[in-house]
Amino acid sequence: DGQKNEQVTYSVGIVQEKSKKENKLFQYSTINALMSGQYDGDITLDEVKKHGDFGLGTLNGADGELTEIDSKFYRFDSKGKMTQVKGDLKTPFVVTTNFQAEKTAKITNVANTTELTAKLLEQMDNKNNFYAFKMPVKLTYLKTRSEPKQERPYRLLKDVLAEQQVEFEYKNVSGTFVGFYTPNYAATINVPGFHFHFVSDDKTIGGHILNLAFDEANVQIDPITQFEVQLPQTKEFAEADLTKIQLQDIIDVEGDHK
Ligand SMILES: C[C@@H](O)[C@](C)(O)C(=O)O
Ligand SMILES: [Zn+2]
Q1: Beta carbons of 153 and 181 less than 8 angstroms apart
Q2: Residue 207 CA to ligand 1 centre (angstroms)
Q3: Is it the case that residue 147 has pLDDT exceeding 50?
């Protein structure tokens, strides 16, 4: 009958509502506690990564600089060695978020962290939010620090870093820049202003960024509108006087003052 057999197919697409990340920064302990010498936390990295896949901090004993990318944790130690660390290690201070870029911005001709922070501020619509920044970048210059594992009785972080901070300088290093911004009103909770760590693509170079330079990169920007602080339930934390840390002490510890 010449009836054309039409093959009719229906494809049923289940529209997956893109799961809106809860847009939260999770942190364990506070920067004031870390600055006060609270170097032994009671949370493991496996527990931390339940709260986020992107972050930074340190390990118990202030044993090096910790950076989290895609839920993997890397320690850059005071000998300049980077290792991926196991999830059963504990941390006294860490911040993490499930990174989700709201926008990406091209940044060019950055000669130092001062210029970088100015360019990042230009991209921030609300400076009373927290922010996370993720930036694959080829750094033409990188200066980082780390510090050795501390022994009890623990000293203030500013004294540890003043005497034992080890600085490293590199040229032409490609990797991932991990940055956070905390509004000054939260300065006793987290590092006020900007806090930058780095992990090279070959996982050999990183740490806490003291200075950097690069020609061009696209920074992914994640405004964060909630933050959750898990307080250590250690005896030392319960007995610590966390009111003695001065804002200037934190600024001095975080930046490059050479
Ligand atoms: C270990 C510290 O150097 C830390 C947490 O990276 C920081 O306060 O910058
Ligand atoms: Zn740091």
Answers
A1: no
A2: 9
A3: yes
